[in-house]
Amino acid sequence: MPTTVTTDDAERVVFAGLAEVGADEAAISRAATFEELDVDSLDLVEIAQVVEDELGVELRADDVKELRTVGDAIDVIVAKSA
Protein backbone atom coordinates (compact mmCIF):
# COMPACT_ATOMS: atom_id res chain seq x y z
CA MET A 1 0.00 0.00 0.00
CA PRO A 2 1.47 3.37 -0.94
CA THR A 3 2.13 5.92 1.75
CA THR A 4 -0.07 8.98 1.88
CA VAL A 5 1.10 11.61 -0.57
CA THR A 6 0.75 15.27 0.34
CA THR A 7 -0.62 17.83 -2.07
CA ASP A 8 2.80 19.51 -2.11
CA ASP A 9 4.51 16.22 -3.04
CA ALA A 10 2.04 15.53 -5.84
CA GLU A 11 2.30 19.10 -7.12
CA ARG A 12 6.10 18.97 -7.18
CA VAL A 13 6.18 15.69 -9.13
CA VAL A 14 3.41 16.66 -11.58
CA PHE A 15 4.90 20.10 -12.27
CA ALA A 16 8.34 18.55 -12.87
CA GLY A 17 6.81 15.87 -15.11
CA LEU A 18 4.97 18.49 -17.16
CA ALA A 19 8.16 20.47 -17.64
CA GLU A 20 9.95 17.26 -18.65
CA VAL A 21 7.44 16.58 -21.45
CA GLY A 22 7.84 20.12 -22.78
CA ALA A 23 5.14 22.18 -21.10
CA ASP A 24 6.03 25.85 -20.62
CA GLU A 25 7.11 26.06 -16.97
CA ALA A 26 5.77 29.61 -16.65
CA ALA A 27 2.31 28.39 -17.69
CA ILE A 28 2.13 25.42 -15.29
CA SER A 29 -0.37 25.96 -12.48
CA ARG A 30 -3.12 23.98 -10.79
CA ALA A 31 -5.69 25.83 -12.93
CA ALA A 32 -3.91 25.19 -16.24
CA THR A 33 -5.59 22.71 -18.55
CA PHE A 34 -3.57 20.04 -20.30
CA GLU A 35 -4.83 21.47 -23.58
CA GLU A 36 -3.43 24.92 -22.69
CA LEU A 37 -0.10 23.29 -21.85
CA ASP A 38 -0.13 21.33 -25.13
CA VAL A 39 0.06 18.05 -23.19
CA ASP A 40 -1.44 15.08 -25.01
CA SER A 41 -2.47 11.61 -23.85
CA LEU A 42 0.99 10.14 -24.49
CA ASP A 43 2.53 12.88 -22.33
CA LEU A 44 0.02 12.03 -19.59
CA VAL A 45 1.08 8.38 -19.71
CA GLU A 46 4.70 9.46 -19.27
CA ILE A 47 3.75 11.71 -16.34
CA ALA A 48 1.73 8.87 -14.79
CA GLN A 49 4.86 6.70 -14.92
CA VAL A 50 6.90 9.40 -13.17
CA VAL A 51 4.19 9.65 -10.49
CA GLU A 52 4.29 5.90 -9.94
CA ASP A 53 8.10 5.82 -9.82
CA GLU A 54 8.46 8.77 -7.45
CA LEU A 55 5.32 8.57 -5.30
CA GLY A 56 4.25 4.93 -5.59
CA VAL A 57 0.76 5.89 -6.81
CA GLU A 58 -0.47 3.97 -9.86
CA LEU A 59 -2.64 5.93 -12.25
CA ARG A 60 -4.67 3.84 -14.67
CA ALA A 61 -6.07 4.91 -18.02
CA ASP A 62 -9.49 5.42 -16.40
CA ASP A 63 -7.90 7.75 -13.84
CA VAL A 64 -6.32 10.05 -16.39
CA LYS A 65 -8.82 10.08 -19.26
CA GLU A 66 -11.20 12.49 -17.49
CA LEU A 67 -8.52 14.86 -16.18
CA ARG A 68 -8.77 18.38 -17.57
CA THR A 69 -6.52 20.48 -15.32
CA VAL A 70 -3.25 20.04 -13.50
CA GLY A 71 -5.16 20.44 -10.23
CA ASP A 72 -7.44 17.54 -11.20
CA ALA A 73 -4.38 15.32 -11.61
CA ILE A 74 -2.90 16.39 -8.26
CA ASP A 75 -6.21 15.76 -6.48
CA VAL A 76 -6.52 12.25 -7.98
CA ILE A 77 -2.96 11.38 -6.96
CA VAL A 78 -3.54 12.52 -3.36
CA ALA A 79 -6.90 10.69 -3.19
CA LYS A 80 -5.46 7.44 -4.55
CA SER A 81 -2.60 7.52 -2.05
CA ALA A 82 -4.89 7.75 0.98
Total domains, how many?
A: 1
Order of SSEs: HHHH
Name given to the CATH homologous superfamily: ACP-like
State the helical fraction: 40-55%
**CATH class category name:** Mainly Alpha
Strand count, sense and closure of the main sheet? none
User: Mind telling me the C-alpha Rg?
Assistant: 11 Å
Shape: globular
Number of helices: 4
Unreliable spans are: none
The count of strands amounts to 0
The CA-CA distance between the termini, in Å, is: 9 Å
CATH topology: Non-ribosomal Peptide Synthetase Peptidyl Carrier Protein, Chain A
Beta-strand proportion: under 5%
Overall pLDDT score: 93
Structural class, please? mainly alpha
Query: What is the architecture at the second tier of CATH?
Result: Orthogonal Bundle
Summarize the model shown.
By secondary structure, this protein is mainly α. The protein has helices at 7-20, 41-55, 61-64, 70-81.
Write up what this structure looks like.
This protein has helices at residues 7-20, 41-55, 61-64, 70-81. The model has no long low-confidence stretch (mean pLDDT 93). It has a single domain (7-81), classed as Non-ribosomal Peptide Synthetase Peptidyl Carrier Protein, Chain A, CATH 1.10.1200.10. By secondary structure, it is mainly alpha-helical. It is 55% helix and 0% strand.
